[in-house]
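Protocol step 4 of 6.
Sequence for Shq1 C-terminal domain-containing protein (Gossypium barbadense) entered exactly as in the expression construct, tag removed. Do not edit the line below.
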Amino acid sequence: MRENVVEELRHLQSDDQTKWKMLEILKRFHSEDETEPLDEDVDDSILSDDTIQKILSGGEVNINDLSLEEKKRFQRFLASGELSKMIEPWDPWWLKPAARTICLSKDGAQLIQPMANREDLESDQPSDIPCGPKTPLPSLRMLISTEPSPLLAVHLVDIIYSYCFTLRVYNGDWQSDAVGSAMVVLSISSVLGQAGQPETVQEALCYCLEQTCSPAYRHIGGLQFGLALVDDITNLLSLGSPALICMLCDLQRMIMAAGRELKSEKQRKLRKSETKSKLKLAERKVYFIMCWVHEQPNKALSSLAAIVSAEKSSLMEYGGNKSFSRTEKNAAGNKGKALIEEM
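Step 5 output, structure tokens:
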């Protein structure tokens, strides 16, 4: 909220009249109950004048700065869902036309771009499309001495789902909380979070959907939200390897940023060490998958998109009544049984 207000003030004249107008807007936004009759002697805003003035001046305000009454009002306002109305919905970059025109060099690295003007260089706004790798991607022969596992395509589906889930939850801004975003990725992805080895696309999707429908995340949208994410997977796969490499590179940056943030956070050494170890393994896995994707023909990725789409249809057929049982590896052979349980 503070960032939005400060950004608006940058485009307005910094006179007293303007500031008081913004103050009145904030107080109207934070009215506890617009249907209740207002008492002129009672301040019904969530935040006090002192707190709002601190926000307008660009000062840092966190929950601990609020009074007990302000905390109670803010929590009621948060629980009501009103805060969501103040957030502009994010449009996923992979659904934009520009995503179909992504170009990388033959070795998978970013193409040399003309120098941007000074205003673009100084802008803090992230690009719509994530940047690809800054350095060439090595051949798989340089990373492993054996043939890559045929299950990597399945693992890619798992990873794409966890990435799309996280970006939609964070409204496209994982930079605001790299550690939290990375932890969400690890909790949704069997491959990155549990060192899982799903053997079929169905198994990978079912695990991700189970996490989406779990008590920790079901308030976000449950099964319908999860099925929409399956469409995201199909869309990304249909864009081809350049878009997938940019996606994986963005995920790698998220995980690496989380690792850097952990160094500055105060946590118990054991827990911190375990988390850093998980992040390091996840980052290596993402990079390996990135190198693998670079060597895959677009025809193979299109075929994988078709398989994902078919599995979604199957899941909708079994799960139309939202009554699911826990998925097992042999679920594909158990016709008539539900696949996922929305807890």
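Step 6, annotate. The radius of gyration is 23 Å.
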